[in-house]
Amino acid sequence: MQVAVLGGETDFDGWRKAARAFRLAGVTPERAAFRVGAGGDGLFDESLPAVTGEAPFSVPKAFVDLAQEVILHRAGDRFDLLYRLLWRLGTEPDLMKVSTDVDVAAALERAKNVSRASHKMKAFVRFRQVEDETGERCVAWFEPAHRVLERTAPFFMRRFTSMRWSILTPDGSASWEDGALAFGPPATRDMAPSEDEIEEFWKTYYASTFNPARLKTRTMQGEMPRRYWKNLPEAALIPELVARSSVRTEAMVAAPAPEPNARLARTLSRLNRDHAFEEGFVPSTLDELDQAVQACRRCPLWRDATQGVCGEGPRKAKLMIVGEQPGDQEDLAGHPFVGPAGRVLDAALEEARIDREDVFVTNAVKHFKHEPRGKRRLHKTPNTAEVSACRWWLNAERRLVRPRVIVTLGATAALGVLGRKVAVTKERGRGIDLGDGAKALLTVHPSYLLRIPDAAARAGERDRFVADLTQARALL
Ligand code: SF4
């Protein structure tokens, strides 16, 4: 047996160096082993045969990308699995395209687990405020399902640029200070503070946004697995809120419809309510567009909505994603894709290696169309006239952002972008020229995935959805 010692559990460069040497020396997967040890930086066994003189080899980029993810998985055999794939690529150059192959499938599954762990870390890290000798610092303790700290830390760097923060995990720590991201040794739970004022903020926020009428305990635990609860301040409230949900639901049903929020009231008083924007008004910024949407009366949907919800994302995003309309949570929050479908979209984007922060997300229709049904505000699909009326705003967003690729989620979004009714299943998966240099790519809406009852069918459809997003990335 030939053994290579790696410098750490996520030492991809060390593994690559060792695996390359193994393969050049003709060491079969059965005779190759990897272990993590102090001072490890390459091959351990002195008797490794000399390089055979085989020409330097290359591997598909898809393998390298996959390997960088798989190595973050906690499975003890991940180094061996990757070397087996590397070895087989020597005689099976198209191996990575065979997703049904047992080794490829295992690697893909692990990469998916790693991606999910990173997504959960973004969602469930909770900072607590402390004072040190140089001032305020935010510190979080987190236990990721896989070793995703270094992969995920840049997300927090971009999100919390102006904060000084540290994230402590059993695998290592990350700190952002003076514009530099640094990684340090593993930490223990007791090194992080447990309570502060922010704790109360999270609890208050969660209690106020918890909607008992939409409670589905199993779905909630799927999105917020119990393993993360112990470090979430708001999780302490869940049992009580669930127990009280039926009482609160009755109270919600009895309560009058919510008043338009303060933001809408301010906007209405500032803007001319008599369709000022209709007479040659063309928004020149996204802010202006957002304000004008609050005063729009082009169709009746504004009457029952809390506010208009416009698109969000970089002003010059290359990729725009268009959904149908804001849902119940988006209508209340004033932001697109913050509800369950948004979380499905976030996870799929992550798997497709698209940074959500690089994407402009919006909807074909800006106000929430719904009808009261017992305890709930039930989503209603906007009709063609409403989509056509709101297309004016969608086109204005397109003019301002000028994306290269527009992904439409579902038939309503496709109607809004293309201006014609289409069968998404027929036109799905091919770039459609939009005449302004941009291409549209049609796919399903993530809420469709949430409604598929059969788990296997749902997983298959989800994979197709991720594949569509991956194709959009390729079109860019
Ligand atoms: Fe105007 Fe669109 Fe709202 Fe209708 S849905 S009122 S067109 S912004």
Can you tell me about this structure?
The structure is a single chain. The protein has 476 residues and is of the alpha/beta class. The protein has four domains: 2-119, no CATH class; 125-191, no CATH class; 199-254, no CATH class; 262-475, Uracil-DNA Glycosylase, subunit E. It contains 18 helices and 15 strands. It has helices at residues 12-24, 61-70, 78-89, 102-124, 149-159, 197-209, 217-223, 238-243, 245-254, 262-270, 286-294, 328-333, 340-351, 384-401, 411-418, 424-427, 446-451, 455-475; strands spanning 2-6, 32-36, 42-43, 128-132, 135-141, 165-168, 173-177, 180-184, 319-323, 359-363, 370-373, 376-379, 405-409, 432-433, 439-443. The strands form four sheets. It has a five-stranded mixed beta sheet with strand order 4-5-6-7-8. Strand 11 and strand 12 form a beta hairpin. Helix 4 (102-124) runs parallel beside helix 5 (149-159) and helix 14 crosses helix 15 (411-418). The protein is globular. Residues 256-261 and 263-279 have low confidence and may be disordered. It binds iron/sulfur cluster (SF4).
